[in-house]
Amino acid sequence: MGRILFTEWMAVCWNPSTDQLNVPVMFNELLYLSAGWPAGCANNISMFITAYVTLERYLCTVLPLKIKKIITPRRTVAVIVSIYVVCVAYVVPEYAYVYYDWNFYPALNRTMLGLAFRSEFLDLKGLSFLIHAILVVSGLFSVSLFSVLLVTQLKRQTSWRKRHTRSENHAEALTLRDRKSSVLIAVLALFMALVDVPMSLKFEKKLG
């Protein structure tokens, strides 16, 4: 939900019609801290939680008798909390380096609210972008890898059930269920790749 709201606000700030409101605000700079980084943070959180859920489902198919000992509620909470902490912490340097202030823009001959930079945090410049790029690549790789492993395992199970199930109707029902699960996970991974990569590249090109 938060990711959707931040993305919608980013679209509003990027809309050329917003600049015609005659408001003393540089919206293309306003979105940097109010939409860009929060959206990126929420995106990474969603991506790593998806990767964890996919890994959990894969382990359920590979180790069905041991999964309850491996994936416990306490460990799940610890993993999710860790994901939130890491994804929020990496944007802290950017908020320490960048802030909002009134600036004079010669091209517009106006003083408007925009971005300003603290010289004492100059060494932090680009650090958040680097960590963000690493997290995006590793997150997409994790989702893709676990999805491929899960789909492969489901196909193996389907073949095994076909060979060892006497009732053809029952075997066909199991196969259809596994196929639906495989397609759902594959589509989810593909959707995340198609959406996240272009948005990340556009965000870095606009604001980097």
Short description:
The chain is mainly α and about 210 residues long. The protein has helices at about 1-15, 25-60, 65-70, 75-90, 90-95, 125-165, 170-205, and strands at about 100-105, 110-115. Helix 2 (about 25-60) runs antiparallel to helix 7 and helix 6 (about 125-165) packs antiparallel against helix 7 (about 170-205).
Strand count? 2
The secondary-structure element order is: HHHHHEEHH
Low-confidence runs? none
Strand order of the largest sheet: 1-2
Question: With helices defined by DSSP (H or I, 4 residues minimum), what is the helix count?
Answer: 7
How much strand content do the residues show? Answer: 5-15%
What would you note in describing this structure?
The protein is mainly alpha-helical. 74% of the residues lie in helices and 8% in strands. It has helices at 2-14, 27-62, 67-70, 73-89, 92-97, 127-164, 168-207; strands at residues 98-105, 110-117. A two-stranded antiparallel ribbon has the order 1-2. Strand 1 and strand 2 form a beta hairpin. The protein is elongated, with a radius of gyration of 23 Å. Keywords: Membrane, Transmembrane, Transmembrane helix. The chain crosses the membrane at residues 30-55, 76-100, 129-152, 183-201. One of its GO terms (molecular function) is G protein-coupled receptor activity.
Keywords:
single chain; 208 residues; mainly alpha; two-stranded antiparallel ribbon; 7 helices; 2 strands; 8% strand; elongated; membrane; G protein-coupled receptor activity; GPCR_Rhodpsn_7TM
Topology, pairings included?
Elements: H1 2-14, H2 27-62, H3 67-70, H4 73-89, H5 92-97, E1 98-105, E2 110-117, H6 127-164, H7 168-207
Antiparallel strand pairs: 1-2
Helix pairs in contact: 1-2, 2-4, 2-6, 2-7, 6-7
GO molecular function, one term: G protein-coupled receptor activity
Transmembrane segments: 30-55, 76-100, 129-152, 183-201
Keywords: Membrane, Transmembrane, Transmembrane helix
